[in-house]
Design brief:
The chain is an all-beta fold. The chain has no helices and 2 strands. A two-stranded antiparallel sheet has the order 1-2.
Length: 44
């Protein structure tokens, strides 16, 4: 898995690169008791 770095060193004429076929998953359910769970999946 690639490591991404951000900060002042990458702000001048440099771009962060990623592998486009990586799948990103994020749980977006709020903390605490709730009746709805959402999982967002992005990628190939």
């Amino acid at each position: 898995m690639p490591t991404l770095k951000c900060g002042p060193a990458l702000t001048k004429n440099k771009r962060m690169t990623t592998i486009n076929n990586d799948t990103i998953v994020a749980i977006s359910t709020p903390h605490g008791m709730g009746g709805i769970a959402v999982v967002r999946v992005s990628g190939d």
